[in-house]
Structure of Nitrite/Sulfite reductase ferredoxin-like domain-containing protein:
Amino acid sequence: MTGRSARRGPDDTGISTRVNGPARPGAVKGWCPGAWRPMMSGDGLVVRVRPRLARIDAAQAAGLADLSEAFGSGIVELTRRGNLQLRGVGEDGHGALLGGLAELGLLDPDPDWEARRNILSAPDWVAGDATERLSQDLAGRLGELPDLPAKFGMVVDAGPKRRLDGAPGDIRIERAASGVIVRADGCDTGVPVENDTAIGTVVALARWFAAHRGEARRMAQLLATTPLSDRFTGVPPAPNGMPEGTLGGVAFGQMEAGLLRTLARGALRITPWRMVLLEGGGALPEGLLPPDDPLLAIDACPGAPFCTQATVETRWLARTLAGRAPSVHVSGCAKGCARSDPADVTLTGRDGAFDLVIRGRAGDTPLRRGLAPKEVPDAL
Ligand code: SF4
């Protein structure tokens, strides 16, 4: 299976701090939308669904397709934290949509629990392995965690092979050469744990973060200035590799509900690579791109008119640039929602034009400024 950077994906866009009801365009940014607290975007509400254990069964997949068409625009997105988003939901349909998600078993009991259940599990877990067991243990002990910043998340990647290197997460339960470690993101090593000490160590590390974080919102950000306690270090994680099996993606993580319904012939594992892994394998279904398709190597946020922060369209340009560089990021504005890592080529929208950044992020100092969209391909 072709390897690729995992730190990419669409549109985990931060939103306002409003607690009840959807966040508004132009509001203060800083937390992640969910199903209970969706984000208002240029095309309506974005309702994010967090699958448990990176899995939706066939009925849930078909049900999500139905809900997307009944209450939204029929567009479903895969995010870089392994979530699903229904776009274009009307405010008046949000309550009924929540009811539908609850019937499918895809709704947390309340908004606070939903916000806490920020767990990314390796998608190729099998019944009884360490990823399955520890993901469930962690989900059952979320109440022991301190208050954490909204985007602070956990990764459980403890199966026989490590899969989620580079996928976003602040505290990571990972496979090491021998056994399992708990590792702080931003530190090269973690502390060895046993089955019965792993979650307690996660809680202790989360508390260490909460006690030391100051203004930091992410673990790696804190570790850039504050040394980690020795009790959380010592052993490096095992090498990483992509899972085997039938893995396919959609450009920019965006698919129509009809494709999701087609895929609902069996259970799906939702990955953080804008791809799904078909449980049970088989041929790659029509509509899914193979992992080495150049379109899957491009990151592009929705841009205008879907995001109110954008002054440029993004995805037509992204399609034009497919294959032009190993990594390309087209961002509607300097926030860079679609990719947090540097890319070989980044185009950042500003006042209806693009700034060109080479080997950097959306907000970095550009090499060229103010390129008209049609000038961009030649400027590369
Ligand atoms: S335009 Fe800016 S705020 Fe909107 S999705 Fe793109 S990067 Fe995020």
Summary: The chain has three domains: 39-110+245-289, 125-232, 295-379. Residues 11, 13, 301-303, 307, 309-310, 331-333, 335-337 surround iron/sulfur cluster (CB under 6 Å).
